[in-house]
């Protein structure tokens, strides 16, 4: 592996661009940024509230959420060479179609200049910042607007993909209305970063105050699990075999549930013959961030990816000598910055160090595989 392949690349790192933060400040219902007086000296504090009835009255926010210098300082502190920055949830989901469209275009241009004016890594000629653009995925948007925005993003040289929530244009991502969008994204070679926002029904969380733990630790990954499963069931990955999709939080619970999913499909007359391949094959078609916080989980995900080709409907016979694919090659490190800041003053963020240590701790991965997950795989996937 050459020096460039040893770069540390963060594929899961967010920003609320100043234009978007301003919009949130102007709102009186979630999602919004409100100011309240806090602490013994009644200092004004901005808080981000992105869900109705959000636990703990939202969370404190500051410059880390929008200021590019803060992003670069965070990267320097943790030795991160390159970040592929995405707008944070809930994106444009709550806006009427006409506003969503114009704001998507403005935010894509904003993110392009955020990245294009970032420092260059001298020996590699790469920039330090690249980005995922946004589509105006809201009900009543026209397909033409969505396709125009895909073209806008494809033409912006520092935007390498599109971050997407799970709602689509109102009916989820398994909606055939999105087929022209998948086709355009596939053709443009952009990577879809699938990221949760809504979690699952908050009635599941009971009445105890557990802060943000249940929605973040469970609700978020379950939302991704359901959305990805619906995509598989809808045949999107059969219709768009070159579509590249990166799943947040290592694909949530899907790797653990994929054999059960395959079995349920095989036993259900409605879907048994719908898909070209066994469900487990499609897990090997996807990319996974390594934001799982533990070595055992990372190893497990890479094993699930590695075995996937044997579930292809055209799989060679069991006694063939075809080497299994390297699961780790489809995994890439991320931080989820600026979320999960340390609760007490520490030099480095625990959430960052933990995800790096998790990679180091996978005993079954070679040093080369670990370097790949730390950055080399992202350089390849995003063609940096
Ligand atoms: N991470 C995110 O990306 N969004 C949140 O709202 C919380 C954590
Ligand atoms: Zn995130």
TrEMBL record:
Gene Ontology cellular-component terms for this entry are:
cytosol
Key word Iron-sulfur present in the record? no
Q: Name one GO molecular function term.
A: hydrolase activity
Report the superkingdom from the record: Eukaryota
- Which GO terms fall under biological process for this protein? secondary metabolic process
InterPro entries for the chain: ACMSD (IPR032465), Amidohydro-rel (IPR006680), Metal_Hydrolase (IPR032466)
The stretch of residues making up the signal peptide is none
TM ranges? none
Q: Which of UniProt's keywords are assigned here?
A: Decarboxylase, Lyase
* Residues of the Amidohydrolase-related domain: 9-384
Q: Belongs to which family? A: Belongs to the metallo-dependent hydrolases superfamily.
Q: What is this protein called?
A: Amidohydrolase 2
